[in-house]
Write a structure and sequence with these properties.
Protein name: DUF4349 domain-containing protein
Oligomer: single chain
Strand content: under 5%
Shape: elongated
Organism: bioreactor metagenome
Helix content: over 70%
Keywords: Membrane, Transmembrane, Transmembrane helix
Pfam family, one: DUF4349
Structural class: mainly alpha
């Protein structure tokens, strides 16, 4: 019928995180009850406002953590399973790609032309690079020749 090419199973263990969060929610609820008691004992508006602010922060933390716990409970009860199927297409006959003698000759000729062009390019670059040296040597040779003509005595005929 078919062949399994790839099989993958993933899971994440959040047990410790779940119990930590549950414990923190319980502790925050105890703190919330204590803060509610303190509101009744507050003597002035400033104390009431400070306690109310702390009570709001604790209530927000409880709500956030309770939402996480509810989400985890849903994920545990609703596991996800992903299946991906791919159709294997019928194989095609492939011909061997054996180069013929003409293909080999063409590649050899093409390679030789490329080598000649690379050599000519190198020779041109060498010649252009050597031009300043040749120019300086020509000037020195001309000056030497002119000095030699003046210094050498002329022959009488």
């Amino acid at each position: 019928m078919g062949e399994v090419i790839n099989h993958n199973t993933n899971s994440v263990d959040i047990t410790e995180q779940y119990y930590d969060t549950t414990t923190r929610v319980e502790n925050l609820k105890v703190q919330e009850n204590r803060l509610r008691e303190l509101v009744g004992m507050a003597k002035n508006v400033e104390e009431i406002l400070k306690i109310e602010n702390e009570l709001n922060r604790v209530r927000s933390d409880i709500d956030l953590m309770s939402t996480d716990i509810k989400r985890w409970d849903k994920q545990v009860s609703l596991s996800s399973l992903y299946v991906s199927l791919k159709e294997i297409k019928a194989g095609k006959l492939e011909t061997l790609n054996i180069p013929t003698i003409w293909t080999k000759a063409y590649k050899g000729f093409y390679g030789a032309i490329n080598n000649i062009l690379r050599g000519a390019e190198g020779l041109f670059i060498y010649a252009v690079t050597a031009l300043p040296y040749i120019f300086i040597l020509a000037i020195i040779s001309l000056i030497s020749y002119l000095i030699l003509l003046k210094v050498r005595p002329k022959k009488i005929k």
